[in-house]
Amino acid sequence: MQTFKLLAELLDYPSGQLVSDLRALIAEHGDVHGMLDVVDGDAVFPRAEREEIAGFIDWLLTQDQTELEANYVRTFDMVAEHSLHLTHHLFGDDKNRGPALIDLSEYYKSFGLQHEESEIPDYLPLMLEFVSQLEHDEARIFLNDATKIFRVLATNLEKFQSPYAALIRVIENHGTLAKLAA
């Protein structure tokens, strides 16, 4: 389930190291599609979703590093409706957010995932890192709890004309339990 790990990296702050690593992986596998075919070796993500991810990576690689970082900050840090801290969409700064964060952290620990105390457990890249360690059906069930948040977040990002919206839609698709029966 390395595609979820890749999505975690793509949704995290875009370091120069990420861009460098992506360029190296693409060169190693011939092109972005070859890289994604290897990353999604289990073919969990349909071709259309891999195309969305490839389009995002192509966009990312054409950006100036400083502008890429500034775009990320403008998108996720300056607009509360775009927050990658998912409980913010449910609770805002309400006091009930704290227990939800503690429960999520304990849930991770029950699966053996330890995260740095400085990381808030509802940060989407951290959640995707966790999901990458699950079986696909388990990942769907875990992501299903946040499907409505993904839908709202993707819509907000689409209104902002953010390329990150496509990645959130891909994640939303994998949280839909109806696909389990397919």
Tell me briefly what this model is:
The protein has 182 residues and is mainly α. Helix content is 67%, strand content 0%.
Helicity level, as a percent range? 55-70%
CATH topology: TorD-like
In quaternary terms, these chains amount to single chain
Classification by helices and strands? mainly alpha
Q: Tell me about the biggest sheet?
A: none
Beta-strand content bin: under 5%
Q: Briefly, what CATH class?
A: Mainly Alpha
Q: Report the strand count.
A: 0
Protein architecture, described:
This protein has about 180 residues and is an all-alpha fold. The chain has one domain (about 1-180): TorD-like (Orthogonal Bundle), CATH 1.10.3480. It contains 11 helices and no strands. It has helices spanning about 1-10, 15-30, 30-40, 45-60, 65-75, 85-90, 95-110, 125-130, 135-145, 145-160, 165-175. Helix 1 (about 1-10) packs antiparallel against helix 8, helix 2 (about 15-30) crosses helix 3 (about 30-40) and helix 3 packs across helix 4 (about 45-60). It is globular, with a radius of gyration of 16 Å. It starts with a helix and ends in an 8-residue tail after the last helix.
Could you list some keywords that capture this structure?
single chain; 182 residues; mainly alpha; TorD-like; 11 helices; 0% strand; globular
Task: Tell me the layout of helices and strands.
Blueprint: H1 2-11, H2 16-29, H3 32-39, H4 47-62, H5 65-77, H6 86-91, H7 97-110, H8 124-131, H9 136-144, H10 147-159, H11 164-174
Helix pairs in contact: 1-8, 2-3, 3-4, 4-11, 10-11
